[in-house]
Design goal:
about 200 residues, 6 helices, eight-stranded mixed sheet, single chain, globular
Length: about 200
Amino acid sequence: TYRLGDLLPRLREEVGRPLRVLDLGGHIGCFSAMVHAVDPEAEIHTYEMHPLNVALLRRNVGAFAAVTQACITPWPAQDFIIADAFPYGESGGAFIVYPECFDERTSYTPTPYEGETRTLDEITEQIGYVDLVKMDIEAQEGPILETTTHFDRFGHVVGEMHRATELVPILDALPHQDVDVTHIDGTEFGYFTICNRQKPLT
């Protein structure tokens, strides 16, 4: 839940207007639905790459969120494949890799990715300042944060941590950010929150 029970009402009161929220890795819409429940007037932009998830995402939150099928990457458009964690068709998680990096010894099923790709900078250039960014993009959180050049375009970030040993040094090196990390004991997983100390209230 990324501690949203406390964060969302506080953010809504702080900005004094409906929130603008960016949901990266929207899956089937749980996060976007939670935001809408707290702030029914929130402007929600949800991005998801997996075609099985997108169909459910549009059904679940399409009435109040702008849903875009696109892969969020640290780099401009590239030729990727989806390494799908659910080879039998269930809606689930997946991540992107370069074709030459796919390990055929894994249980993941490779599928060419034919959809759009977006960087965080490209999205914020289009929609403007974002009060809250949520990231659940299967270990791409670190590279995306590391390559983002416009931290002045968002106020808070919450995300799932997939590889703590890789992500935590990136979080610690971010300029002008207050970072809080919660580890799941004995694993590389957890959650993180970022508060931009230089955020404009626009």
